[in-house]
Amino acid sequence: MDRETDFCPSVKNILLLDSEGKRVAVKYYSDDWPTNSAKEAFEKAIFTKTQKTNARTEAEIAMFENNIIVYKFVQDLHFYVTGSEDESELILATVLQGFFDAVGILLRIILETDANSIASKVASHSIDSGAPLSEQTISQALATAREHLARSLLK
Predict the structure, then answer these.
(1) Is the Cβ–Cβ distance between 83 and 98 less than 8 Å?
(2) pTM score > 0.70 for this model?
(3) Which SUPFAM superfamilies does this one have (predicted)?
């Protein structure tokens, strides 16, 4: 590493997994996991390592494969932020809190309880090819979140 990047905080990935460890939304900023199967194996491994912890009241920190993982669980959602082993836990925790708050704001817009209405709104968002790629990704993440919410309400 050159001297300039030594001082620049960096996040390797941000993960949002469901209660079974499956992807809701993920974003990788590092080439540490070059293939999709490597990414999925990493996600499964950290989910398995952390699922029995009590990270529901506040964020927890763990070391895993020379990385620092800061994570928090809320209901069926598992939030993770990964940084290198020499990264500041405080910076990673701040990123986690920002991610958590943003998802919370996005999920507050779900006021509809009629399944047919939700399905039609989700379908109309998923086929909107005119929407920018970033909005499609958020729409897809919201659709998955709606699905998990609906599933948990129907249990």
Answers:
(1) no
(2) no
(3) SNARE-like
Tens digit of pLDDT for each residue in 18-48?
999 999 999 999 999 999 999 999 999 999 9
- What DSSP designation does 15 have? E
| Res 1: pLDDT | 45
Amino acid letter, residue 69: I
35 dihedral zone (left: phi>0; alpha: psi -120 to 50; beta): beta
Secondary-structure percent of the chain, ordered helix, strand, coil, rounded to 5: 45, 20, 35
SS3 of 99, please? helix
Q: What is the mean pLDDT of the chain?
A: 80
User: Alpha-carbon distance 43 to 92, whole Å?
Assistant: 17
Task: Give, in degrees to the nearest 5, the angle at Cα 100 between 147 and 107.
Answer: 35
